[in-house]
Write a structure and sequence with these properties.
Blueprint (H helix, E strand, L loop, with lengths): L4 H7 L40 E3 L2 E11 L5 E13 L2 E6 L2 E5 L2 E7 L2 E6 L2 E10 L11 E10 L23 E15 L2 E14 L2 E4 L11 E5 L3 E11 L4 E12 L3 E5 L16 E13 L4 E14 L1 E14 L1
Antiparallel strand pairs: 1-4, 1-19, 2-3, 2-19, 3-6, 4-5, 5-8, 6-7, 8-9, 9-10, 10-11, 11-14, 12-13, 13-16, 14-15, 15-17, 17-18, 18-19
Protein backbone atom coordinates (compact mmCIF):
# COMPACT_ATOMS: atom_id res chain seq x y z
CA UNK A 1 0.00 0.00 0.00
CA UNK A 2 2.89 2.38 0.70
CA UNK A 3 3.73 2.66 -2.99
CA UNK A 4 0.17 3.70 -3.89
CA UNK A 5 -0.10 6.89 -1.86
CA UNK A 6 2.05 9.16 -4.00
CA UNK A 7 -0.43 8.89 -6.89
CA UNK A 8 -2.95 10.82 -4.81
CA UNK A 9 -0.39 13.11 -3.19
CA UNK A 10 1.05 14.17 -6.54
CA UNK A 11 -2.25 14.64 -8.38
CA UNK A 12 -5.35 15.12 -6.26
CA UNK A 13 -4.68 18.71 -5.24
CA UNK A 14 -4.15 19.83 -8.81
CA UNK A 15 -7.41 18.69 -10.32
CA UNK A 16 -9.97 20.94 -8.68
CA UNK A 17 -12.62 22.69 -10.73
CA UNK A 18 -12.65 25.79 -8.53
CA UNK A 19 -13.59 28.15 -11.37
CA UNK A 20 -17.15 29.39 -11.27
CA UNK A 21 -18.23 30.37 -14.79
CA UNK A 22 -20.53 33.34 -15.25
CA UNK A 23 -21.80 34.62 -18.56
CA UNK A 24 -22.57 38.32 -18.00
CA UNK A 25 -24.07 40.34 -20.82
CA UNK A 26 -24.33 37.32 -23.08
CA UNK A 27 -27.09 37.12 -25.69
CA UNK A 28 -28.56 33.74 -24.74
CA UNK A 29 -31.69 32.55 -26.57
CA UNK A 30 -33.08 31.64 -23.10
CA UNK A 31 -32.07 32.51 -19.55
CA UNK A 32 -28.40 31.63 -19.17
CA UNK A 33 -27.18 28.53 -17.31
CA UNK A 34 -25.91 28.48 -13.73
CA UNK A 35 -22.95 26.11 -13.58
CA UNK A 36 -20.70 25.03 -10.72
CA UNK A 37 -18.35 22.98 -12.90
CA UNK A 38 -17.44 19.27 -13.03
CA UNK A 39 -15.68 17.81 -10.01
CA UNK A 40 -12.19 17.94 -11.52
CA UNK A 41 -11.86 19.82 -14.82
CA UNK A 42 -11.06 23.54 -14.38
CA UNK A 43 -12.76 26.30 -16.33
CA UNK A 44 -11.24 27.62 -19.54
CA UNK A 45 -11.76 31.26 -18.46
CA UNK A 46 -10.09 33.26 -15.69
CA UNK A 47 -11.80 35.05 -12.84
CA UNK A 48 -12.06 38.78 -13.74
CA UNK A 49 -10.23 41.46 -11.76
CA UNK A 50 -12.15 42.54 -8.67
CA UNK A 51 -13.77 39.11 -8.24
CA UNK A 52 -12.84 36.01 -6.28
CA UNK A 53 -14.01 32.44 -6.01
CA UNK A 54 -13.79 29.86 -3.22
CA UNK A 55 -14.84 26.21 -3.35
CA UNK A 56 -14.14 24.02 -0.29
CA UNK A 57 -13.87 20.32 -1.18
CA UNK A 58 -14.22 17.24 1.02
CA UNK A 59 -13.01 13.88 -0.31
CA UNK A 60 -13.68 10.58 1.46
CA UNK A 61 -11.16 8.30 -0.25
CA UNK A 62 -10.85 4.53 0.06
CA UNK A 63 -7.75 3.03 -1.56
CA UNK A 64 -8.75 -0.62 -1.73
CA UNK A 65 -5.78 -2.12 -3.56
CA UNK A 66 -3.70 -1.66 -6.66
CA UNK A 67 -3.45 -2.57 -10.31
CA UNK A 68 -0.37 -4.66 -11.07
CA UNK A 69 1.86 -4.53 -14.17
CA UNK A 70 -0.62 -6.75 -16.03
CA UNK A 71 -3.60 -4.45 -15.28
CA UNK A 72 -5.02 -6.94 -12.78
CA UNK A 73 -6.72 -5.74 -9.61
CA UNK A 74 -4.94 -6.80 -6.39
CA UNK A 75 -6.81 -6.26 -3.13
CA UNK A 76 -5.10 -4.83 -0.04
CA UNK A 77 -6.20 -3.56 3.40
CA UNK A 78 -8.26 -0.43 2.77
CA UNK A 79 -6.45 2.86 3.31
CA UNK A 80 -8.93 5.62 4.21
CA UNK A 81 -8.25 9.32 3.72
CA UNK A 82 -10.59 12.20 4.55
CA UNK A 83 -9.13 15.04 2.54
CA UNK A 84 -10.21 18.69 2.94
CA UNK A 85 -9.03 21.25 0.39
CA UNK A 86 -10.01 24.92 0.04
CA UNK A 87 -9.14 26.38 -3.39
CA UNK A 88 -9.19 30.20 -3.34
CA UNK A 89 -9.05 32.01 -6.69
CA UNK A 90 -8.59 35.77 -7.13
CA UNK A 91 -8.81 37.78 -10.35
CA UNK A 92 -5.72 39.95 -10.89
CA UNK A 93 -6.61 41.59 -14.20
CA UNK A 94 -8.74 40.96 -17.27
CA UNK A 95 -6.61 37.98 -18.37
CA UNK A 96 -4.90 36.74 -15.19
CA UNK A 97 -5.94 35.07 -11.93
CA UNK A 98 -4.19 33.38 -9.02
CA UNK A 99 -5.29 30.22 -7.16
CA UNK A 100 -3.99 28.86 -3.83
CA UNK A 101 -5.23 25.58 -2.32
CA UNK A 102 -4.40 24.81 1.34
CA UNK A 103 -5.51 21.46 2.67
CA UNK A 104 -5.18 18.70 5.26
CA UNK A 105 -6.11 15.03 5.67
CA UNK A 106 -7.03 12.38 8.21
CA UNK A 107 -5.50 9.05 7.12
CA UNK A 108 -6.51 5.72 8.63
CA UNK A 109 -5.78 2.05 8.07
CA UNK A 110 -5.65 -1.07 10.27
CA UNK A 111 -6.38 0.85 13.50
CA UNK A 112 -3.70 3.49 12.80
CA UNK A 113 -4.67 7.09 12.07
CA UNK A 114 -2.86 10.42 11.66
CA UNK A 115 -3.67 14.03 10.76
CA UNK A 116 -1.45 15.37 8.00
CA UNK A 117 -0.88 18.71 6.31
CA UNK A 118 -1.08 18.61 2.50
CA UNK A 119 1.27 20.17 -0.03
CA UNK A 120 0.01 23.52 -1.34
CA UNK A 121 -0.46 24.08 -5.09
CA UNK A 122 -0.26 27.66 -6.35
CA UNK A 123 -1.66 28.25 -9.83
CA UNK A 124 -1.41 31.22 -12.18
CA UNK A 125 -4.01 31.19 -14.97
CA UNK A 126 -3.47 33.19 -18.17
CA UNK A 127 -6.32 33.78 -20.63
CA UNK A 128 -5.04 33.17 -24.15
CA UNK A 129 -8.40 33.45 -25.90
CA UNK A 130 -11.88 34.08 -24.53
CA UNK A 131 -14.69 33.25 -26.91
CA UNK A 132 -17.90 34.83 -25.68
CA UNK A 133 -21.01 32.74 -26.17
CA UNK A 134 -22.09 33.08 -29.81
CA UNK A 135 -24.33 30.41 -31.27
CA UNK A 136 -22.74 28.79 -34.31
CA UNK A 137 -19.21 29.83 -33.29
CA UNK A 138 -17.31 26.66 -32.37
CA UNK A 139 -13.99 28.25 -31.36
CA UNK A 140 -13.26 27.32 -27.69
CA UNK A 141 -11.90 29.56 -24.97
CA UNK A 142 -8.28 28.71 -24.12
CA UNK A 143 -6.43 29.19 -20.83
CA UNK A 144 -2.76 28.60 -19.98
CA UNK A 145 -2.16 27.07 -16.54
CA UNK A 146 1.15 27.55 -14.70
CA UNK A 147 1.41 25.60 -11.45
CA UNK A 148 3.89 25.10 -8.62
CA UNK A 149 3.43 22.60 -5.79
CA UNK A 150 4.92 23.81 -2.49
CA UNK A 151 6.08 20.72 -0.54
CA UNK A 152 4.90 21.53 3.00
CA UNK A 153 3.41 18.08 3.77
CA UNK A 154 5.41 15.44 5.62
CA UNK A 155 7.04 12.84 3.36
CA UNK A 156 10.28 11.77 5.07
CA UNK A 157 11.25 9.94 8.29
CA UNK A 158 7.81 8.37 8.64
CA UNK A 159 7.00 6.12 11.60
CA UNK A 160 6.62 2.53 10.30
CA UNK A 161 4.12 1.79 13.08
CA UNK A 162 1.76 4.36 11.54
CA UNK A 163 1.55 2.32 8.32
CA UNK A 164 2.17 5.41 6.18
CA UNK A 165 -0.86 7.27 7.54
CA UNK A 166 1.56 10.08 8.49
CA UNK A 167 2.47 10.65 4.83
CA UNK A 168 1.01 13.95 3.63
CA UNK A 169 3.29 15.30 0.93
CA UNK A 170 5.50 14.58 -2.04
CA UNK A 171 8.61 16.39 -0.77
CA UNK A 172 9.14 17.73 -4.28
CA UNK A 173 8.68 21.10 -5.92
CA UNK A 174 6.43 20.08 -8.79
CA UNK A 175 6.27 22.50 -11.70
CA UNK A 176 3.27 22.05 -13.96
CA UNK A 177 2.02 23.70 -17.09
CA UNK A 178 -1.02 22.98 -19.20
CA UNK A 179 -3.85 24.17 -21.39
CA UNK A 180 -7.58 24.20 -20.75
CA UNK A 181 -10.07 24.36 -23.62
CA UNK A 182 -13.74 25.07 -23.04
CA UNK A 183 -16.94 25.61 -25.01
CA UNK A 184 -20.56 26.24 -24.01
CA UNK A 185 -23.09 24.92 -26.52
CA UNK A 186 -26.85 25.56 -26.48
CA UNK A 187 -29.14 22.80 -27.71
CA UNK A 188 -32.74 23.75 -26.97
CA UNK A 189 -34.74 25.26 -24.14
CA UNK A 190 -32.77 25.19 -20.84
CA UNK A 191 -30.35 22.53 -22.11
CA UNK A 192 -26.70 23.54 -22.47
CA UNK A 193 -23.56 21.43 -22.81
CA UNK A 194 -20.45 22.83 -21.18
CA UNK A 195 -17.39 20.93 -22.44
CA UNK A 196 -13.87 21.28 -21.01
CA UNK A 197 -10.65 19.54 -21.98
CA UNK A 198 -7.49 19.80 -19.86
CA UNK A 199 -3.97 18.64 -20.60
CA UNK A 200 -1.28 19.21 -17.96
CA UNK A 201 2.35 18.15 -17.70
CA UNK A 202 4.06 17.93 -14.28
CA UNK A 203 7.82 18.06 -13.74
CA UNK A 204 8.94 17.29 -10.13
CA UNK A 205 12.28 18.18 -8.60
CA UNK A 206 14.61 15.61 -7.03
CA UNK A 207 14.00 14.61 -3.40
CA UNK A 208 16.38 13.55 -0.64
CA UNK A 209 14.91 10.47 1.09
CA UNK A 210 15.68 9.36 4.63
CA UNK A 211 14.04 6.35 6.29
CA UNK A 212 10.43 5.35 5.58
CA UNK A 213 8.93 7.87 3.17
CA UNK A 214 6.04 8.56 0.80
CA UNK A 215 7.76 6.61 -1.99
CA UNK A 216 8.59 3.51 0.06
CA UNK A 217 11.98 3.00 1.67
CA UNK A 218 12.70 1.59 5.11
CA UNK A 219 15.27 1.49 7.87
CA UNK A 220 18.46 3.31 6.85
CA UNK A 221 17.17 4.66 3.55
CA UNK A 222 19.50 7.34 2.18
CA UNK A 223 18.78 8.13 -1.45
CA UNK A 224 18.37 10.90 -3.97
CA UNK A 225 15.05 10.23 -5.64
CA UNK A 226 13.84 11.52 -8.99
CA UNK A 227 10.00 11.24 -8.99
CA UNK A 228 7.98 10.38 -12.06
CA UNK A 229 7.07 13.07 -14.51
CA UNK A 230 3.39 12.91 -15.38
CA UNK A 231 0.77 13.98 -17.87
CA UNK A 232 -2.85 14.47 -16.90
CA UNK A 233 -5.78 14.48 -19.34
CA UNK A 234 -9.37 15.29 -18.39
CA UNK A 235 -12.52 15.63 -20.46
CA UNK A 236 -15.15 17.33 -18.29
CA UNK A 237 -18.78 17.64 -19.39
CA UNK A 238 -21.82 19.36 -17.88
CA UNK A 239 -25.39 19.00 -19.12
CA UNK A 240 -28.03 21.36 -17.75
CA UNK A 241 -31.32 19.66 -16.90
CA UNK A 242 -32.76 23.04 -15.87
CA UNK A 243 -31.23 26.34 -14.88
CA UNK A 244 -30.52 25.13 -11.32
CA UNK A 245 -29.74 21.46 -12.01
CA UNK A 246 -26.96 19.86 -14.04
CA UNK A 247 -25.30 16.51 -14.55
CA UNK A 248 -21.50 16.39 -14.79
CA UNK A 249 -18.80 13.84 -15.52
CA UNK A 250 -15.00 13.78 -15.76
CA UNK A 251 -13.12 11.20 -17.84
CA UNK A 252 -9.53 11.16 -16.62
CA UNK A 253 -6.26 9.59 -17.74
CA UNK A 254 -2.99 9.99 -15.84
CA UNK A 255 0.37 8.71 -17.07
CA UNK A 256 3.57 8.55 -14.99
CA UNK A 257 7.05 7.97 -16.38
CA UNK A 258 9.57 5.67 -14.71
CA UNK A 259 11.16 7.15 -11.58
CA UNK A 260 14.75 6.43 -10.55
CA UNK A 261 17.09 6.97 -7.59
CA UNK A 262 20.68 6.75 -6.49
CA UNK A 263 21.76 5.57 -3.04
CA UNK A 264 20.50 2.98 -0.56
CA UNK A 265 16.81 2.00 -0.56
CA UNK A 266 16.92 0.74 3.05
CA UNK A 267 15.61 -2.36 4.82
CA UNK A 268 12.15 -3.47 5.84
CA UNK A 269 11.46 -4.16 9.52
CA UNK A 270 12.00 -7.89 8.87
CA UNK A 271 15.47 -7.23 7.45
CA UNK A 272 14.59 -7.77 3.78
CA UNK A 273 15.57 -5.12 1.20
CA UNK A 274 13.10 -2.23 0.98
CA UNK A 275 11.91 -0.82 -2.31
CA UNK A 276 11.28 2.62 -3.74
CA UNK A 277 8.60 3.30 -6.33
CA UNK A 278 10.24 3.35 -9.78
CA UNK A 279 7.98 1.62 -12.31
CA UNK A 280 5.94 3.64 -14.84
CA UNK A 281 2.23 3.90 -14.00
CA UNK A 282 -1.07 4.46 -15.77
CA UNK A 283 -4.44 5.19 -14.27
CA UNK A 284 -7.89 5.73 -15.78
CA UNK A 285 -10.71 7.12 -13.65
CA UNK A 286 -14.18 8.60 -13.92
CA UNK A 287 -16.06 11.14 -11.79
CA UNK A 288 -19.85 11.43 -12.34
CA UNK A 289 -21.62 14.13 -10.32
CA UNK A 290 -24.85 16.05 -9.77
CA UNK A 291 -24.88 19.80 -9.20
CA UNK A 292 -27.43 22.27 -7.90
CA UNK A 293 -27.13 26.06 -8.06
CA UNK A 294 -29.15 28.35 -5.78
CA UNK A 295 -28.11 31.34 -7.92
CA UNK A 296 -25.49 32.41 -10.42
CA UNK A 297 -23.09 32.83 -7.46
CA UNK A 298 -23.87 29.86 -5.19
CA UNK A 299 -23.74 26.18 -6.07
CA UNK A 300 -23.03 22.72 -4.70
CA UNK A 301 -21.75 19.61 -6.47
CA UNK A 302 -21.44 16.05 -5.22
CA UNK A 303 -20.37 12.81 -6.84
CA UNK A 304 -18.02 9.86 -6.94
CA UNK A 305 -14.46 9.73 -8.27
CA UNK A 306 -13.20 6.20 -8.88
CA UNK A 307 -10.57 4.27 -10.77
CA UNK A 308 -11.72 2.02 -13.60
CA UNK A 309 -8.41 0.59 -14.83
CA UNK A 310 -4.71 0.99 -14.24
CA UNK A 311 -1.19 -0.34 -14.34
CA UNK A 312 1.08 -0.16 -11.26
CA UNK A 313 -1.33 2.34 -9.71
CA UNK A 314 -3.93 2.71 -6.99
CA UNK A 315 -7.42 1.25 -7.10
CA UNK A 316 -9.71 3.66 -5.31
CA UNK A 317 -13.20 5.06 -4.86
CA UNK A 318 -13.92 8.48 -3.41
CA UNK A 319 -17.03 10.40 -2.45
CA UNK A 320 -16.64 14.11 -3.22
CA UNK A 321 -18.67 17.18 -2.29
CA UNK A 322 -17.89 20.86 -2.85
CA UNK A 323 -19.68 24.16 -2.26
CA UNK A 324 -18.86 27.02 -4.62
CA UNK A 325 -19.17 30.75 -3.97
CA UNK A 326 -18.32 33.44 -6.50
CA UNK A 327 -18.11 37.12 -5.60
Amino acid sequence: MKNLLSLFILTSTSLLAVDKVLYPNQDFPVEGPWLTGPLLAPSSVTVPAGHWNVEPYVYEIAITGNYDSDWRSIKAPTFWSTNVEVPIQVGLCSFLDLQVTPGFSWNYTQHKGTWTLSDIPVVLDVQLYNNDFIEGNWMPSIKLVLRELFPVGKYNQLDPENLFTDSGGAGSWVTGFGLVFGKLIHFRGPHFLNARFTVQYNLPSAVQLRGFNTYGGGIGTRAKYFPSQSIFLDLGLEWTLAQRWALAIDLVATYFTKAHFSGFAGLNTDGTPATLQTVPRIQYSVAPALEYNWSANWGVIGGVWMSVAGRNSAQFISGVIAVNYYH
